[in-house]
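Technical annex B. To support the medicinal chemistry partners, we prepared a structural model of the target in complex with calcium ion, based solely on the information shown next.
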Amino acid sequence: MATALPTILIVEDEMAIVELVSFSLKAAGWEVDAVHSTAEAWDYLQNKRPQLILLDWMLPDQSGLRLLSRIRSDRNFSTLPIIMLTAKSMEEDKVAGLEQGADDYITKPFSPRELNARIKALIRRKTPEHAELEMQVGALRLDPVSCRVSVNDAQIEIGHAEFKLLRFLIAHPERVFTRSQLLDKVWGDHAVLEERTVDVHVLRLRKALGGADSLIKTVRSVGYMLSEK
Ligand code: CA
């Protein structure tokens, strides 16, 4: 199930770094989980989906690079944001990491502030529905920080599930999503919900949007999209 607070998973065996990174990420408002080997990381991913992974290169059982390629070859995790932590500053290592599907890398020693900035930038780029920026389409505005939604500057009442659905759709306007994609993206990979649940929430969302309900389009025999057209 998707958790309320966004979690960052650190895969790192050097405890001093785990502590430093955990401390600064928690101060920045993240939940932090730490594991210390690739095997533990893989087990973790079977039960929980983090918002982002900080993956060390040198780990006791296998290299972080091996775990990276395993994660990327799994359909469920192919888009999970990953930043490699590396003590290596050799150009070819960075290239190898990026070729295996790392989204970014940061070379040790790094400052917690720099790490934080990289994390924010990556999340904004890969999962805009989790960024903190206000999003607007037409008369509709959504503020992800205060969780407020307004239509023509008037705040509307909206349920939690409908808010999550709208946050996802407004972050990806003009794109059609199937019901199963929406279940996956909005409710999480491990959600055991039926596809018609999506229809129920779309119905409630349109009701909540009042005059702006026509922004949520039904695309016959495909799914739904948010569109101004
Ligand atoms: Ca290490």
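Notes passed to the chemistry partners:
The pocket of calcium ion is lined by residues 12-14, 56, 58-59 (CB under 6 Å).
Helices lie at 15-27, 38-47, 64-72, 91-99, 112-126, 160-171, 179-187, 195-209.
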